[in-house]
Amino acid sequence: MKQEYFDIYDEAGNRIGRALRSECHGNPALLHHTSHVVVFHPAGGRILLQKRSRSKDIQPGKWDTAVGGHVDAGEDYLTAALRELREELGVTASAGELRHLFDSKIRNAVESEDVRVYALRSAGPFRFQPEEIDEIRFWTADELAGPENRESFTPNLIAELALLREKGLL
Question: Quick check: 28 and 107 in contact, CB under 8 A?
Fold first, then answer.
């Protein structure tokens, strides 16, 4: 398995070093960057979610944002978003097809991430990465708001959905 390195940042967004992925997960002092892509169905009213593989080290088997991945060392948010979109869903998009929605922060006992969230309108076709994802499907706003579904969502997805609602995007 190849070793993944992430750039490490201070709270002001200044790059201060580099660390292995394995060091970043489990050490919330190592702030790193992540890109997410929310995939909106072109007909409106639905967004795509991925069910994380049961073999994932964080939040296995939970529903999450359609595309999410760490920004590799030397990479920027947009490049990482396009790479993750290609790797996770088999979708090749241009930079102009992604729209920056907002930035957020994830801080928990496992890791600290600054997240840039993009939007893409697409109905597929999708070819998801079975090593990373068990299932994908479009969800309606009502399904996403249903309290019965919350326990099957990652905490990060719950926070991101709240921001999408707050900004009138859901």
Answer: yes
